[in-house]
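Hi U.,

Before I forget, here's the chain from the pilot set. I'm dumping it here mostly so it's searchable later in email.
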Amino acid sequence: MNFKLNVITASLLLASAPTMAANFAVGNANTENLNQEKYECKRCTNTSGYSGNIDISAGYIDSDDVHAANALGTDQDGFVTALSGDVEYQDENGYQASIQAHQLGFENSTANISVGQKGLFNVDADYSLITTYQSGDAQSNLYYDDGMMLPGDTYVFELSQQREKVGIGADFNQDFYQGYVRFDREDKTGYKSSSLVSPSPVNFGQRVDSTTDSFTAGAALTGQNWLTELSYFGSQYKNNTENLSLPTDYDVYSATPDNQAHQVSLSGQYQLDRTIMSGRFIVGRMIQDDDLIQVAGNPIQNWDGEVDTTDANIRITSMLSNRLRVGGSYDYSNRENNSSVFEFQQYNFDSVSGTFKENVATDVERSTFKVNASYRIASGYRLQAGYDRKDIERTYSDREETNEDSLWAKLSIRAIDNFTIDMKAGHSNRSGSEYQATELTSSEDNSLMRKYYLADRERNEVELRMSHTPLDWLSIDFTGRYAKDNYDDTVIGLTESEDYSYDINVNMQLTKQFSAYGFAGQQWINSAQAGSQNYSDPDWYADIEDEFINLGAGVSYGGLMEDKLTLGADYLFSNSSSDTYVTADGTNPYGDYYSYNHSASLYANYALSDDMALKLTYRYERYYDTDDAQMTTDQVPGMVTLGELNHNYNAHQIMLNFSYVL
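Structure:
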């Protein structure tokens, strides 16, 4: 524990030294004639023992689409049960333990067990199960058999992935030093959509079965005005699936290779008067050395892939006066690819061109410099401003260097009663070295094309945040944003982008028993691009319009039946749409893509006693999406798909929850 002695405290200690020597301690006080009841703490409670709650849930789910499980937490249909809880124990000596669980029995659940002594050590174990569902109606005529995909009758299967993670960790704290260690293992299983283009376009469900182990450990030292930490992080990924083959072609699809990564980090912080300095230095290495698929002309058995990473940052903040604070930072990142480089004979479709070409090991180096200042103009008014500079160098790229300069300013107002206002504006400009189609891309790309993350760009953006509390029971929050990107020097590629949005939140505490809330938000992203079919000047243009909507409201009313019953309702609506218009010899819109979701719930919470409660919840999910790119398995001759994976369903869930308070 850190503490400081000021001049007054030190004087009191010196003045009381003789008294301390005389041993006038509280333990030696004469309390025989003292009425101690007058000095007892009336509000103090004994924190030792058990506390918390245990919840047991049972209910029924009616759904005809597995996608609803993303919202309901389980793909089980019919009767379901779950266990949740949060139980803590603490004794008078500071030893404590806790157990937390959320929806155990569902396909999305978590649990944690922790034991230790407060301020000294702690050991904990974690469990989590996360399942995401894409579709339960995918179709395929390819069957797995030890890495071989055999054609047969079309069958229906589920596209979903499940991540099961267990971990154990420990930390300790002793005087001025601390330490921690942790190990986690995650198993990922299921099926995901994938595709082949040779010998013909085929979509299939790729089996997923992998294990990722991660280990972290560290130690820290703390002083009166400084701290430092040394840590290590390592991870190892193992793919338990094999390369995929067809009866007529072997190893047509390469399995994700095993790999590992390691990092060592040293960080620290130091305070000197009103100046705080902090920094971090990280070195790492990523290794990939799996066997390669053997093809004609490739004599290499495996590829010793190795990437070394270096990251560093330093930050300084100083209060120059009671009104002015200045700060700055520098971030550096280097990704050095030290993988082996080989010469390969080039293939042009089925014939050998006779030339050789090397695989390219690309390096990326980034550096970011920032300075900022914050000045309190007057009571309730603060002005902030800053300048950022970002430099990126990419080897073997169409543009090896990019430089981005940004200026921003922010005005914060707190002087107006019941208002907090923040206004921010920024301008940035990106340029760089000469843009050219390299030898690696010149045969594939139009020389006039500019990739959006490398092209010259000018961005202007503004943001307004405002909170208002007009009444004691009402609060309103508003956020509005607008950003415009111009790519004036781009002939082929993204030429313009516009992004603007707003969010409104309203909270009301109408009475002690009745509360309500509501929120609304919308975002629009519009972009324009130009293209060419004949590798020359633009001959077609596209306008893309994306829109997102989120609306919600809820009420809660308590105080019924002698404050034992609380009723509530929540509603959420979301909608997203994307429209693309292509102009060539005329304007031709792409097919529709949009989705919407209605989610509503009603609940009643009844207190059986001070220790027990019942909660009845009904939940309704309405989901619909459509993508014109989806098609049946045989809609296009010569191409095999997974079928139409759109969704259109209603789902219902009713749950009864019993809660016991310890």
